[in-house]
Amino acid sequence: MRKKDLTKSKPAFGRQPGDLPPRELLERVIRVDHAGELGAVRIYEGQLSVLEKNGDAATVRHMKEQEEIHRAQFAKLVTERRVRPTLLSPLWHFAGYALGAGTAMMGKDAAMACTEAVEEVIDEHYLAQLEQLGDDEPELKETIAKFRDEEIEHRDIARAEGAAAAPGYELLTSAVKSGSRLAIWLSSRI
Q: What mean pLDDT do residues 46-59 have?
C-alpha cells in the first residue's frame, strides 16, 4: 500500500490549521484598518498643528487629505459589515495626535521620519492582509491595494523630504515602527 504524500494535500476549504474563520478575519481586517486610518489622520493633524506655523505644511496636508478618504471608507465598511470598532479608538485619537505633534516639534525632518516609519509598517501590514484574504473579498482587496499604493507614496514623499536627516533617525524610526506594530496587533483584537 502506498503512503499518501501529505505535503501535497490541501486543507479543507483552502484553510490552514490556526487560520481565523473567514468572518473573524474580515472583522479584524476592517477593525484594524479603521483604527489605523484614524491614527494616521490624527498623526497628520498633530504634525500640521506645528508645521503650519513654520510654513512646512503643504506636503503633510496632501497626505492627511488622502488619509481622511481612507478613514471614511473604513468607517463606511464598519457600518456596512457590522464590525465593532476597536475599543482603543480613544487612545489612538490621543496617541496619534501626540506622536504627530511631538515629532513635528523636533523639526520637519523628524515629522517625515515618523511618517516614513509608520507608512513602512502599513505597507507591510496591507500586503499581509492582501495575502490573507486570498481570492475572497475582491472589492475590499481592491480598496486595500489602492490605499497601500497611497501609503507607499507617503513613505516615498517622507524620504524625499528629508526623513533620514532627522536627529536620532534610527532610534526614532525604530520606536515608531515598534509602536505601530503593537497598535496593529492590539487594534485587531481589542
A: 87
Distance CA(93)–CA(41), nearest Å, equals 9
End-to-end CA distance of the chain: 50
The per-residue pLDDT for range 70-121, each reduced to its tens digit, is: 999 999 999 999 999 999 999 999 999 999 999 999 999 999 999 999 999 9
The runs of H, that is alpha helices, within the chain are 22-51, 58-80, 89-105, 108-133, 138-160, 169-189
Which percentage of the chain shows pLDDT scores above 70?
91
Give buried/exposed letters for 114-138 (b at 16+ CB in 10 A, else e): bbbbbbbbbbebbeebbeebeeebe
The letter for the amino acid at 5 is D
Residue 186 and residue 111: Cα distance in Å, rounded?
A: 24
Block residue for cell numbers 523630504: 161
Single-letter code of the amino acid located at 160: A
CA angle 99, 101, 103 (to 5 degrees): 65
**Contact in structure between 169 and 162 (CB atoms under 8 Å):** no
Q: Is 23 exposed, middle or buried (0-12, 13-18, 19+ CB in 10 A)?
A: exposed
DSSP helix/strand/coil, 2? coil
**Alpha-carbon distance 80 to 64, whole Å?**
24
Alpha-carbon distance 21 to 15, whole Å? 9
Q: Residue 112 is placed in which grid cell? A: 517625515
